[in-house]
Amino acid sequence: MGLQKNKGVWNMYNDLKGQVAIVTGASSGLGKAIAKRFGAEKMKVVVNYLDQEKEAKDVVNEIHRLGGEAVAEQGDVSKEEDLDRLITSAHENFGSLDVMMNNAGIQTETYSHEMSLEEWNKVISVNLTGTFLGSTKAIAYMLDHQIKGSIINMSSVHEVVPWPYFVHYATSKGGMKLLTQTLALEYGGKGIRVNNIGPGAINTPINKEKFSNPEEREGVLSMIPMKEIGEPEQVASIAAFLASEQASYVTGCTLFVDGGMKLYPSFQAGRG
């Protein structure tokens, strides 16, 4: 099966046609790219957003243009009742839930010794608790409806690479690694796969200012063996693969999309 371009978005997995997915944090950045890729695969998508309603509805319209189906659904992933509503939306609008894409996440930069408990809790509650809630509630639905589904969590290279000034973020992603592996081990026998995607430096709106500064951009490139900044569509391609039957024997893994960032690039010239 060859990779094909569908109205500006790559698609290739015929088995995804008609499957139902929830994508959290889908109004911008990686979530938007993943939701659009799922649309190009002719999937039915619940486009979750926190406060960007117009942007979410634009994503819904784009999915329709690509040949998929979609609805926008507001919700804070750190709140249990909001995750319940997302699951209900998938069931009531499309009759199923085959793929749960836990993408929503936040980050802030602070010296660790100056970080408030409130700031710590906010990042942990969205990134880690939100992924726990999204994963376990999707798994419960899949078990109830005898669905062999796929849970995909948006981790980071920082599940293995320490990140000063972002201790809450790195901790949330490190926790996500064992959350994912534990759920994969626990529910693999039920046909439910659980995997992570670990992006590196990706050209998303949150990084726009940094990458537009030549000095900062060069600093980032120095940490990437491939000397390229990634694009959201490259991450979305991994999400589509993990959702598809072509990844039917893949579970408990993190697939890194980082140009080699986690490979200790300072050793690239053979020094050390």
TrEMBL record:
Reaction it catalyzes: D-glucose + NAD(+) = D-glucono-1,5-lactone + NADH + H(+); D-glucose + NADP(+) = D-glucono-1,5-lactone + NADPH + H(+)
PROSITE patterns attached to this UniProt entry: ADH_SHORT
Record's keyword annotation contains Lipid biosynthesis: no
GO molecular function (one): glucose 1-dehydrogenase [NAD(P)+] activity
EC numbers, comma separated: 1.1.1.47
Alphabetized Pfam families for the sequence: adh_short_C2
Domain of life the protein comes from: Bacteria
InterPro entries xref list: NAD(P)-bd_dom_sf (IPR036291), Sc_DH/Rdtase_CS (IPR020904), SDR_fam (IPR002347)
Keyword set, alphabetical order: Oxidoreductase
Subunit note: Homotetramer.
The family this protein is said to belong to: Belongs to the short-chain dehydrogenases/reductases (SDR) family.
Protein name: glucose 1-dehydrogenase [NAD(P)(+)]
